[in-house]
Amino acid sequence: MSDWGRVDADGNVYVKEGDAERLIGQWVAGGDAEEALAFYVRRFDNLQTEVDLLEKRLESGKLSAEDAEKAISTVREQLVDAHAVGDLASLSTRLDALEPKLEEARAKRKAEREKRNAESAEAKNRIVAEAEKIAAGRDWRAGADRLRVLLDEWKELPRLSKGADDELWHRFSSARTAFTKKRKAHFGEQNVAREQAQKIKEKLIVEAESLSGSTDWGDTSAAYRDLMQQWKAAGSAPRNVEDKLWKRFRAAQDAFFSAREAENAAQDEEFAQNAEVKRALLVEAEALLPITNLDAARKALNSLAERWEAAGKVPRDQMKDLEGRLRAVERAVREAGEQEWKRTDPEKTARADDMISKLESAIAEIQADLEAAEAAGDKSKAKKLRENLQSRQAFLEMALKTASDFNR
Length: 408
Known about the structure:
By secondary structure, the protein is mainly alpha-helical. It is 81% helix and 4% strand.
């Protein structure tokens, strides 16, 4: 006997529903009534477990509103004429209590869906804007890589409404297509330019190799500089041949310049003795400083210059120092000559004598006028003449000093 069901003497099994009973089966297993009731109670327990799980999953949010609605409907169907012993009405009541939660889940799911759609719309608009910006540019390598990343991002985003999604996809796809066409055209033009550069560089290599054995160091060095400028101006050849072309071109240059360096090294060794001779000459030249006898210094320097030229060339790394020391002595002799000329310039002496003569005449006239003014008692005029006389006398002293400097 159970609070929710019973088994009669004929083995019929009943479940209580309110004040009434409903026949749910007949026990024919040959056991006692308790065993029969336990079988149908277990069926009820299974239904109750399903309701428990529904409540927990809906509460946790792990079950979508759509799936929850289907599950509730399924359990409700199982409760209709259920062959189970237990409080079936309470299970229906618990299912009814899930309906408000189901509405909350629907509202939450709708809000989440709208949020995802808004975020997806924002993300897709950002992707489209960036793709169109890339399509307008010319960053072929980074642009292509970035467009692939944007495409992967697009695929991960939820779809929008068909019209909105199709419009954005069309813009995105058009930007990618436009960029791809421009990129292919660019690399096509670049390939043509690289092939042309290859032809130019192959000709330059032939010319460089023809010059590699030359011993005309100056002109050939200039020719190689010109070839290098042409090489740079030609641009890059295809990647699979650029390095090979450069190695051939560089090898021709290296052969020439190595030979030139060897020749220069041999010459430097030969010129080392000349440098020692010139250092000895510099000792003589620098002993002339400071200049005390200009004529003797000029004669000595002329003799040194002849012996300097006769000594021949010196190593290039010593040339600047040796020449610079000799130029310093020459400059000192030249400056001493200029100073002597300034001091003895006849024209300047004549101008100085003329000025002295004029100043002396003027002073004599002013002296006579001053004496006349003093005799007449004209103090004002006498004062002005006296001041004028002092000024002229000062100028005369300066002129006499200058003339003395010229005549020393």
